[in-house]
Design goal:
single chain; 11 helices; globular
């Protein structure tokens, strides 16, 4: 369906929101140079709040955000970001971190903070039983092997079923996928507030983890430089491949 047709049908009733959303998305660019304009704490706090409204698996929220503000830490972080201009000139520098070790604690926290009291039994069962079985791997993945066999039997007998997380890499992918969703919300929120950002994958993760005091179960998904766009902050005209190449209807 063309954009014009979409505008004239169901989307037309949401035109004010749609137009504002388009402006935010279409004006967001990866900005490599920023001005000296600061980002107020209240603005950053709101952007981080909006970031954490991102969709995430079972509301387990396996993400953390490290705002690197101290002079010494920022200097070292910039070096760890290969002295990229997006880091050097940023007003705020943020590490988006995925956690693979706190799913159990967060499942318990969801039940403590659940907005309906008493918590429905099916919700308790889900977080106490289903979530635990989904993530549990056991020593040398012994539980994972049992889960794999059980899933194959169920799949053959009853049909499609979600695969649980068998390995550490499965859990890491889960956590980083969720954290990346929050990172996108953060960048769009910054744009909506009139600021810009640049997600950076080019950084020394071991050095950055040491700087931030992170452990083996912390995974830096990206570094985000944020600030007000400089006149020379965008390096080239935006373009994307044709949707017909990448969008498939089956």
């Amino acid at each position: 369906m063309s954009i014009d047709k979409a505008d004239s049908t169901a989307a037309s009733i949401h035109t004010p929101n749609l137009q504002a959303f388009r402006e935010v998305v279409e004006s967001r660019r990866s900005v490599r140079r920023f001005t000296d304009t600061p980002i107020p704490d209240a603005v950053l706090d709101d952007c981080l709040r909006l970031a954490m409204l991102a969709p995430n698996s079972s509301n387990l929220q396996p993400w953390e955000f490290y705002v690197i503000d101290s002079v010494d830490s920022r200097k070292r972080a910039i070096k760890n970001c290969m002295n990229q201009n997006a880091a050097k000139t940023s007003a705020r520098l943020i590490a988006v971190v995925a956690r693979t070790d706190n799913w159990h604690d967060h499942a318990k926290q969801v039940l403590r903070e659940y907005p309906v009291n008493p918590v429905p039994k099916k919700v308790k069962d889900y977080y106490n039983k289903v979530v635990t079985l989904d993530f549990l791997r056991g020593p040398v993945n012994i539980v994972s092997a049992a889960k794999w066999g059980t899933i194959q039997v169920i799949r053959r007998a009853k049909g499609p079923i979600k695969s649980p997380y068998y390995t550490f890499d499965d859990v890491k992918n889960w956590a980083t996928n969720n954290a990346a969703l929050a990172a996108q919300n953060l960048m769009l929120a910054l744009r909506a507030h009139g600021f810009d950002s640049c997600p950076m994958g080019g950084f020394d993760e071991p050095a950055m983890k040491k700087l931030l005091g992170l452990g083996d179960d912390h995974h830096i998904v990206m570094m985000i430089g944020a600030g007000a766009r400089a006149d020379n902050g965008i390096y080239h005209t935006q373009f994307r491949f044709d949707p017909d190449q990448l969008v498939h209807y089956v």
